[in-house]
From TrEMBL:
Enzyme class: transferase
Name by which UniProt lists this protein: histidine kinase
Organism (species): Blautia celeris
Annotated Histidine kinase domain residues: 212-428
EC number: 2.7.13.3
InterPro entries attached to this UniProt entry: HATPase_C_sf, HATPase_dom, His_kinase_dom, HisK_dim/P_dom, HisK_dim/P_sf, Sensor_HK_Regulatory, Sig_transdc_His_kin-like_C
Alphabetical keyword list: Kinase, Membrane, Phosphoprotein, Transferase, Transmembrane, Transmembrane helix, Two-component regulatory system
GO molecular function: kinase activity
Length: 438
């Protein structure tokens, strides 16, 4: 699916950009062509004026001097005086060319070189263009008075150099456009791949999430169905046990559904956040109070570490969401720390951020799992597969911290165990000094 979409997007981007490129190239070619034509016409006018000036002022026709002004490779000049022609080039091809030119001048414009119209002089030459053998020629007819009479001058200029320049320009632009289109195709392929990669990864993760959620939901559902079947045929005294099992599995399924709904809201960016001024001392005291007795029942020691502050630290955050993060971390710590262990809850100031931590003396987390434990449904070895944990808690904690523009991570604790840290940007009041109980 994504490969097909990537190909379509690549072709679409290349086509759209290519059309724009070709349009700009066409406009550029037109501008350059007009510039070359204007420059060639200006040079031609200069050459014609130089030839006519020489014929008017010279006492004698010198073809070498005329050749120095008008290159005989491109110019063909024939002089007429009293019905006699003095050809500039004896080549037969050029003579035939001039015959066509003279005939065109007479038929189309009424200009007879043997009897030129009166009043036509050097200042007002007859000029027109015509194609001969697929080459454009600029034609000029003029009458030039000189000291002994009047010349009629016929000049044909083959614009071969201009044609070569234009074709060379076409070739250069074609190579540039072709190269640009190939590069655009490669860039579009690379760019669309980079653009679709997060979407493809998210879809893959979504499919994995659905598969994992289905697997997790199947287990309590299977227990509930089997318990219901067993309760239907069980003795009266055995039914309460099956009832309690169904209730426990129902509660377990409810927790899983709530966790999945929370993550779905985060994915859809519809998770409501209510930022307000929260007292960190009050927040941590409430969390500590909830988990103190629970830890004590499991034979654990829960300590709290608060920084020495002259005033009560106030942070702008969503207090309930931060409590949820602390609850997730403490719940994991209580679940995985063996009897007789210790748990430390606290916070400290870290530059312009507040850094919160939950440390335990449990089995610790291998380095290879430190990044993956925040993935959804990830659980490591058997020691971290208790029934009430689905591998979603740390994912939810990570989303909450991300919405606070903070960071969450885990490190090894000295002497064994793990320390979970997360930060919240910005602080108000408070001291930079922590108790150092880690």
């Amino acid at each position: 699916m994504y490969k097909k979409l990537r190909r379509k997007m690549t072709l679409f981007c290349t086509a759209v950009t290519g059309i724009i490129l070709l349009a700009m190239t066409f406009a550029g070619l037109l501008a350059f062509k007009n510039l070359l034509e204007a420059n060639d016409a200006a040079v031609h006018d200069k050459d014609i004026n130089s030839v006519l000036t020489y014929l008017e002022n010279g006492g004698m026709i010198d073809y070498e001097k005329i050749s120095a002004v008008a290159d005989p490779r491109f110019y063909t000049i024939v002089l007429y005086e009293n019905g006699v022609s003095y050809t500039y080039s004896p080549e037969k091809e050029k003579q035939k060319l001039m015959e066509k030119v003279i005939q065109r001048a007479e038929n189309a414009y009424g200009f007879d070189v043997y009897d030129p119209p009166a009043g036509r002089g050097k200042e007002k030459p007859l000029e027109f263009s015509m194609k001969i053998n697929h080459t454009e020629h600029m034609i000029t007819f003029a009458t030039v008075p000189y000291r002994h009479g009047t010349f009629c001058v016929a000049v044909s200029y083959a614009r071969e150099t201009l044609n070569h320049q234009i074709w060379y320009l076409y070739l250069v632009f074609a190579v540039i456009d072709l190269t640009a289109l190939v590069l655009l195709l490669l860039f579009s392929w690379f760019y669309t791949g980079r653009m679709l990669s997060p979407i493809e990864n998210n879809r893959t993760k979504q499919m994995q999430f659905v598969a994992s959620a289905s697997h997790e939901l199947r287990s309590p559902l299977a227990v509930m169905l089997s318990s219901a079947d067993a309760m239907a045929v069980a003795d009266e005294e055995d039914r309460p046990g099956f009832h309690e099992m169904i209730k426990a599995e129902g509660q377990r399924m409810s927790r899983l559904v709530n966790d999945m709904l929370s993550l779905a809201s985060a994915d859809n960016q519809s998770w409501s956040m209510h930022f307000e001024k929260v007292s960190l001392d009050t927040l941590f005291s409430e969390v500590y109070g909830r988990y103190h007795m629970l830890a004590k029942k499991k034979g654990l020691k829960l300590h709290i570490s608060l920084p020495e502050c002259e005033e009560n630290p106030i942070v702008l955050c969503d207090g309930q969401r931060l409590e949820q993060v602390l609850d997730i971390l403490l719940d994991n710590a209580v679940s995985y720390t063996p009897q007789g262990g210790t748990i430390l809850l606290g916070y400290e100031k870290d530059g312009t951020k507040w850094k919160f931590f939950v440390a335990d003396s449990g089995p610790g987390i291998p380095d290879k799992w430190k990044e993956r434990i925040f993935d959804r449904f990830f659980r490591g070895d058997a020691s971290r597969k208790e029934k009430k944990h689905f591998g979603l808690g740390l994912s939810i904690a990570g989303e909450i911290v991300r919405l606070h523009k903070g960071k969450i991570w885990v490190e090894d604790r000295k002497g064994g165990g793990s320390v979970f840290y997360f930060t919240v940007p910005g602080y108000r009041n408070g001291s930079e000094k922590a108790n150092g109980l880690l």
